[in-house]
Amino acid sequence: MVGAAAYDVGVTIERDIVPRGRHAPPLAVRLDVQRRRLFAAAAAVFARSGYADASAEGISREAGMSKATFYEHFANKEECLLAMFDTGVEEVMGEMAAASEGLEVDRYEERVRAVNRAFLGALAVHPDSTYTLIVTILGAGPRAAARRGEVLEAFAESLYQANARNAPAFGAPTFASRDDAYAVVGATVELVARHLRGEDGNDDLLDLEQVISRLVLGALDRAGTG
Question: Per CATH, which fold does 14-73 belong to?
């Protein structure tokens, strides 16, 4: 996922070759570059081969790095996937927060649509990484499933709180409960996964904005608005 976060999960491998010798950057910078290269390579391998058939050796080879370097950063492919997942989630949430700040709109619907466009735009920039973070994570074992569940809960809570904070200023309704917000998040993630698997017959992820915005607006509790 994207933005000015610490790691750009979808960064291309070739762009991140760093100078050696006396022109080499500080160790922290080199380690950061290595980590991002491994994330990019892992995304490509996971998307191409699936989680079960991926290996530390395959990821290292994709990154043009040694297997020893891989193990300096991650204990195994599961740790690599979890770190990549956490980084990607942080970046997407940052994109959505940035889209919300200073947003000047006349209607609550416009605000919802702007945030949803930011969310989908963040996912669309790097399809391999997005596939890993939305689809591959489902088959990566119990730790990954638990982490995914925690993230869905966090997204739902963020959506619930943002709605409660912003909707009243527009005279718009709010969610009746946190479960309503969770239902929207769960449906949204499944819609994106369906698209990434090529099951919706649509080439443009951003086209999901309209249906996701309808999901959000349709789930609001209009009984409380008179």
Answer: Arc Repressor Mutant, subunit A (1.10.10)
As annotated, the residues of the chain forming the CATH 1.10.10 domain(s) are 14-73
pTM score: 0.79
Looking at the DSSP assignment, which residues form a beta bridge with residue 24? Answer: none
Specify whether the CB–CB gap between 171 and 200 falls below 8 A.
no
What does the DSSP 8-state code read for residue 51?
A: T
Listed range (123-137, 153-167, 206-220) with the worst mean pLDDT? 123-137
Give the HSE-up count for residue 12: Cα atoms under 13 Å, Cβ half-sphere.
3
pLDDT digits (tens, 9 = 90+) for 173-194: 999 999 999 999 999 999 999 9
Q: Under CATH, to which class is 77-225 assigned?
A: mainly alpha
